[in-house]
Amino acid sequence: MKILLVNPPNSGRSIPEEEYGIDSIKSIFRGEPLALEVLAGNLRDHEVMILDLKVEPDALVASLAAFAPDIVGLTGMTCEANAMVAQAKVIKANCQALVVVGGIHASNDPDFFHQPAIDYIAIGLGKASLRQLVLALEQGGDTSIIPGICKVGSGSTANYTPRQFSMADLVDDVPPAYELVQRYRQHYILTSLQLDMGFVATAFGCPFRCHFCCIKGLTDGRYLAHSIATVLRDISLLPDVPIIRLLDANTFANVEHATKLATALKEANLGKQFLADVRSDTVVKHPELMTLWKEAGLRAVIVGFEEIDDSSLSAMNKANSVAVNSEAITILHDIGITIIGDFIISPSYNHSDFDRLERYITEHQVDLPMITVLTPLPGTPLFDDMQAEISIDDLDYYTLTNAVTPTVMAGKEFYQRYAALLKMSHSGASL
Question: pTM for this structure?
């Protein structure tokens, strides 16, 4: 079969830009579509094409005409969900292909995609289930019995058999089809720092349950780690990329596995530098692991500090503390690992709250703060808690840089302080 996998265009909208002319906050997503490369890798006995509309935003209709696919797969985040539906309509208007949607929003809110232009919804990891769907379509089998695959029918509810995700869903022996995006490779850079970067997954899911996090829907809460050999293989498939972003929710969730992986990377001497996500309590409990990873090429870590007081962290179910965060910063500085710190500002922030966060970032010398706005994403406990407060339902604004619940400060003041904080914290930032 001919299968076209589509990465949606940048489609998130910006309140500060549209309402107040502040364009420095707008979030632009640019990176290789690893999810599609992974799916394509498990379909190599079919004719597969990846179309990246973040690079070629106007190429969908022409690609449909030239490739004439039997199946089109769409993936995307919450802020891209509306764009995915719009693309599905374009696909149906231009060809006879079946449309399958997947990704994190489809996994957390499958009912959203229960629409006429969509034929199937893939919930959670799709590497194994999409292949099962393609085979069933090819052979005329019953697609309704495939766990994790929803056949869109009448009504507005997605009915499907939940998938019991396991190591089998990782399909370890099949690598991502990195070659299918080779024509786009020059565009996959860390734009703010102009660094070439490739994506590799070492694991999926996370064992923690932060209220704001949407990761649970990907594996139904399980933490599934690729084998050491699989990770080394995938890294070696990106020979010309100097920096590898380990695109995991928590690379170090399994300390034993992370230790073995660092040892293997050190011995393999692949000449790569790595960016990875780590919890601050893991750094504090296992500083020797961070040292080992530094020796293996770890250049920077993304740490979800989130907030700067314990009551806010507790409300997020972060299972962590400000004291641990501060200790982790000291340890990482001593080891020489760059800190990319994730902080979440609440719509309830006032000037005093912005002042406190600015002081914390400056005093603790967080190398590259990444500051987002608390956003109740569908499918998260936070969404359930805040649903009555949501004032903006349009998912285009769910970019994590817009307040979709009312702000305590006047809107313009809130976004001016947000923009100023970003400017201050990114001034002279380097990786």
Answer: 0.94
